[in-house]
């Protein structure tokens, strides 16, 4: 039994009609066809599986690597009256068990999971018991080694399909080359290749390359001219803070964002930017995934991204409201040279990679045969300092060893928040907060966390917010209010990098880094860098067409608004103006001519002819020899 998709759209989202391609994707899935959908950033991908899932009987399993996005999606669905849950690394086992039981015995419609969850045999056992109607793979390019963000855990999705041979799969991505499109379908075991794509063309975005060595000043000049919400992408945390400080000093209200901030700091800064309190955010690429802010007027890339995919996705966060927006990339010969060197930085020698493997095992004091299944918090700065390693090469080595299967490097392990009552249970009843939410929260804490009066209790904020019927921010404010009254001690949680060993430590002679983890990926990365260099250096081809060509969408119609197109328009206009001037001078060299007769002889539209005549008069090259008769100035 299925439900009418237009009625679902109207009932839950209030829209009368779908955006282009959305309905085609939904009907394809409901017809039982495995579908790969390519939609640019901001095209409304999430609605396609949400409407499909609601129209079908059973649970829609959504695999996504973005914890922040899955939390926001679950909260949004719940606010619309739709039952949704999320399971990700770091949650309490009791909470995970509760959610899985709800999915088996209750009416949960959407279950979001991180790809790493698919490694768990216990999860798989429970998953087999669920009535799954469809599987959605978000950020599907992550499954392809030819993609720009390959994640080995995504390969497990095909194994999960074996439990549900008749269940349709919907793969979604905003960026995929023809090779990646083919590989996604093979990795997900599509019975029949089936791709639905929307043009990657963004007619309202003006793509611009600005050559400069004085980048802070260039950013200031751009933001001074283009008012409104803006994102400035940088490659390092230090640049994020320093550029934001420079802009604030120059009177442009800004803040910075990177993965080194606490989860609360990131949440606050993201919210301040989304609500317009801080118009400019200077950020690393940790910022932006899953954020649907329609009125971003400009996205500036302070540094050149490694690939057209990354650039297109980040630049595409501009102008989602359809109004004119700008994507500006700051470039220079020095910056392009640094981009070319990233190939060797990202793929250091295999000997260097093995050195990093040995160093990391020593860092955690693991002997041979030890470590399998263990999880360690990872401090990159301390690690590279202790072993005198190049940070960029060391981090690249860790990622390559992740792909090769020796460990998992992740930021998806949450350090949970902690709470402890700082007053005795008896004294607790003496406090009159005058706030019903605070009263309910205290009762909920006492009921669910034994020993909370004598030691820190690790709490599940998702569970508490759900039980209280409030948003996570409201819950946080309630904890702060209780802490200020000295009723509790509250230590907010955070997200930090972790290393999870998938194998015991091996002798270096046993470490094998195969083609799929090294040579093939290096070749793919080098081709992306080459394409990005071309994008920076090609000043003859429309920027929009260059990007579309890279993604296999060949068109001939230029955008008309990128720096290349505008430059050609200006050049053409200047050429036309010079031709008109030459005609005027040639005609007047023969004889003096009345104005109207001269305009007719020039044989161009009246306005540009009059303009050029006035310019020549102002320059005193020609003159009125008698009323309404022009001649050369003697």
Characterize the structure shown:
The protein is an alpha/beta fold and 634 residues long. The chain has five domains: 5-197, P-loop containing nucleotide triphosphate hydrolases (Rossmann fold, 3-Layer(aba) Sandwich); 205-339 and 528-550, Rossmann fold, CATH 3.40.50; 348-413 and 497-517, Arc Repressor Mutant, subunit A; 417-492; 573-632, Winged helix-like DNA-binding domain superfamily/Winged helix DNA-binding domain (Arc Repressor Mutant, subunit A). Helices cover 45% and strands 16% of the residues. It is built from 25 helices and 24 strands. A seven-stranded parallel beta sheet has the order 3-4-2-5-6-1-7, with helices on both faces. It has a six-stranded parallel beta sheet with strand order 8-13-12-9-11-10, with helices on both faces. Helix 12 links the parallel strand 12 (296-301) and strand 13. The longest helix is centred in the last third of the chain and has 28 residues, at 563-590. The chain is elongated.
């Amino acid at each position: 039994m299925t439900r009418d998709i237009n009625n679902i759209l109207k009932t839950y989202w209030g829209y009368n009609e779908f955006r282009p391609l959305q309905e085609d994707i939904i009907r394809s899935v409901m017809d039982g066809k495995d579908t790969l959908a390519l939609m640019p950033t901001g095209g409304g991908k999430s609605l396609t599986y949400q409407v499909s899932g609601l129209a079908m009987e059973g649970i829609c399993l959504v695999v996504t690597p973005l914890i922040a996005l899955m939390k926001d999606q679950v909260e949004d669905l719940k606010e619309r009256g739709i039952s949704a849950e999320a399971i990700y690394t770091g949650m309490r086992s009791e909470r995970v068990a509760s959610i899985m039981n709800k999915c088996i015995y209750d009416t949960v419609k959407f279950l979001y999971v991180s790809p790493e969850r698919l490694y768990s045999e216990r999860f798989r056992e429970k998953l087999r018991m669920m009535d799954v109607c469809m599987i959605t793979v978000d950020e599907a390019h992550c499954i392809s080694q030819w993609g720009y963000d390959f994640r080995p855990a995504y390969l497990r999705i095909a194994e999960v399909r074996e439990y549900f041979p008749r269940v349709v799969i919907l793969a979604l991505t905003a960026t995929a080359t023809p090779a990646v499109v083919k590989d996604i379908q093979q990795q997900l075991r599509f019975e029949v290749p089936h791709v639905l794509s929307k043009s990657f063309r963004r007619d309202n975005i003006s793509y611009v390359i600005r050559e400069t060595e004085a980048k802070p000043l260039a950013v200031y000049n751009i933001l001074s001219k283009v008012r409104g919400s803006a994102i400035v992408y940088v490659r390092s945390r230090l640049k994020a803070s320093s550029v934001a400080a420079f802009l604030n000093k120059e009177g442009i209200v800004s803040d910075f964002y990177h993965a080194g901030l606490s989860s609360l700091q990131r949440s606050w800064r993201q919210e301040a930017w989304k609500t317009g309190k801080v118009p400019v955010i200077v950020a690393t690429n940790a910022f932006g995934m899953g954020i649907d802010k329609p009125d971003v007027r400009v996205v500036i890339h302070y540094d050149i991204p490694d690939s057209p995919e990354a650039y297109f996705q980040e630049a595409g966060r501009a102008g989602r409201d359809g109004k004119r927006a700008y994507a500006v990339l700051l470039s220079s010969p020095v910056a392009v040279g640094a981009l070319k060197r990233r190939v060797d930085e990202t793929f250091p020698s295999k000997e260097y990679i093995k050195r990093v493997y040995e160093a990391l095992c020593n860092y955690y004091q693991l002997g041979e045969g030890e470590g399998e299944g263990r999880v360690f918090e990872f401090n990159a700065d301390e690690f590279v300092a202790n072993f005198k390693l190049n940070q960029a090469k060391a981090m690249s080595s860790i990622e390559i060893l992740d792909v090769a299967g020796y460990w998992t490097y992740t930021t998806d392990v949450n350090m949970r928040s902690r709470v402890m009552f700082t007053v005795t249970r008896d004294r607790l009843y003496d406090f009159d907060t005058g706030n019903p939410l605070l009263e309910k929260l205290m009762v909920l804490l006492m009921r669910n966390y034994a020993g909370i009066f004598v030691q820190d209790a690790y709490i599940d904020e998702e569970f508490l917010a759900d039980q209280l019927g409030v948003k996570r921010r409201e819950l946080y404010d309630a904890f702060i209010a209780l802490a200020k009254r000295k009723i509790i001690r509250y230590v907010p949680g955070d997200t930090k990098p972790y290393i999870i060993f998938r194998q015991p430590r091996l002798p270096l002679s046993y470490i094998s880094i195969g083609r799929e983890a090294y040579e093939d990926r290096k070749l793919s990365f080098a081709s992306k860098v080459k394409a990005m260099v071309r994008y920076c250096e090609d000043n003859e081809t429309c920027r929009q067409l260059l990007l579309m060509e890279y993604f296999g969408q060949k068109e001939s119609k230029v955008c008309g608004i990128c720096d290349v197109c505008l430059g050609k328009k200006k050049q053409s206009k200047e050429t036309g103006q010079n031709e008109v001037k030459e005609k005027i001078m040639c005609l007047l060299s023969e004889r003096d001519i009345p104005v109207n007769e001269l305009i007719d002889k020039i044989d161009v539209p009246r306005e540009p002819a009059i303009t050029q005549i006035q310019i020549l008069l102002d320059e005193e090259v020609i003159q009125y020899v008698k009323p309404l008769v022009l001649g050369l100035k003697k």
